[in-house]
Specification:
The chain has 106 residues and is α+β, with helices and mostly antiparallel strands. It has a six-stranded mixed β-sheet with strand order 1-2-3-4-6-5, sandwiched between helices. It has four helices and six strands, in the order H-E-E-H-E-E-H-E-E-H.
């Protein structure tokens, strides 16, 4: 619970079209999922990135849209691995500039 509060406290977000994009320090997938669930009413898509030693963990969630194309684009552009269901995908990608991650989501 403390790690989740720290991750949420350090979360910086911005709206990119219909996507709420957020970056935080190191956080596991359960933490990212809990943060995303708390923000699902804020945008059609929630895309969260947690910086790790060798890249980013990502989680993209949506109540109504299909998130799998976002995972495919991130994985192809940033040597990533991951996937999931239409309402939620998660994975790991290599280090990249935050703006480049945002550009791939647009």
């Amino acid at each position: 619970a403390l790690n989740e509060k720290l991750a949420e406290a350090s979360l910086s977000t911005e709206m990119v079209g219909n996507i709420l994009v957020g970056f935080t320090g190191d956080a596991d997938f359960n933490t990212l999922r809990n943060i995303a669930n708390g923000k699902l009413n804020m945008a059609e898509y929630i895309a969260l990135f947690a910086e790790t030693a060798d890249g980013f963990n990502y989680l993209i969630a949506s109540k109504s849209g299909d998130t799998r194309n976002f995972a495919k684009a991130l994985n192809e552009n940033f040597s990533g691995k991951g996937g999931g269901r239409p309402d939620c995908v998660q994975g790991k990608i290599a280090k990249a500039e935050k703006q480049k991650l945002i550009d791939v989501l647009k």
